[in-house]
Specification:
single chain, alpha/beta, five-stranded parallel sheet, three-stranded parallel sheet, disordered C terminus
């Protein structure tokens, strides 16, 4: 059983949902990333999303773009990020860690070396923003061999057939991007209506029987709690 599934099963038994904060590796300083990861766990994080710095984060808004730029000023590479996870694992063997980023650094390293080093470092899942399921088969098979989950995204505009396909292929969880546009987009793009979120949740639960995550702004957490959404089947 993967650490992600184990964590979600544990939370489901407790009647809880997961708190999954994101931080960009190397921002504001590479030497404190592992400390920040530990602090997040101490503050209640159930899973950590660790962003891999990239020079062209096309799906991200200005906040994460600037975080990547600051990390890249310190020449933080994918190998450096894997080393950060390895150091974190020396102190925490239970909190799942997901790498979130783009395909180019993985292409440069190579699928096989990346999957092997990710597993050895203690990475539990990867979410590659610019790899749709139609193009992710080869990498997914290699990751699967190493016991690393590959997480896919669904969007507000995803059709029912596409949601079904993504749910069939995704492992760990499905990442529902509940905003039309880049992360940190305008406020009106976030809450276009609880009916849309509820509709997508019901659609996802037709095809999966495990929990899912939403990409939501922290400011809207209270609003999310008010929405009549059942997160468990």
């Amino acid at each position: 059983m993967s650490m992600l599934k184990k964590k979600f099963d544990q939370l489901q038994q407790q009647g809880k949902t997961a708190l999954i904060p994101f931080l960009t590796a190397g921002d504001p300083l590479p030497e404190i990333t592992v400390d920040l990861m530990q602090d997040l766990v101490a503050a209640g994080a159930d899973i950590i999303e660790l962003g891999v710095p990239f020079s062209d984060p096309m799906a991200d808004g200005p906040v994460i773009q600037r975080a990547s730029e600051r990390a890249l000023e310190y020449h933080v590479s994918l190998r450096d990020v894997l080393e950060m996870v390895r150091r974190f694992r020396q102190m925490d063997s239970e909190t799942p860690v997901i790498l979130m980023g783009y395909l180019n650094p993985i292409e440069i390293m190579g699928y096989q070396p990346f999957a092997k080093q990710a597993a050895e470092s203690g990475v539990d899942g990867v979410l590659i923003v610019d790899v749709p399921p139609e193009e992710g088969h080869d990498l997914q098979q290699i990751l699967k061999q190493q016991g690393v989950d590959q997480i896919y995204l669904v969007a507000p505009t995803s059709t029912e057939d596409r949601v079904r396909r993504i749910c069939e292929l995704s492992s760990g969880f499905v990442y529902y991007v509940s905003v039309k546009g880049v992360t940190g987009a305008r406020i009106q793009n976030y809450l276009w209506g609880s009916d849309s979120v509820s509709r997508m949740t019901r659609l996802l639960l037709q095809f999966i029987n495990w929990l899912m995550q939403w990409l939501l702004g922290v400011l809207w957490f209270r609003g999310l709690r008010r929405w009549p959404i059942n997160l468990k089947r």
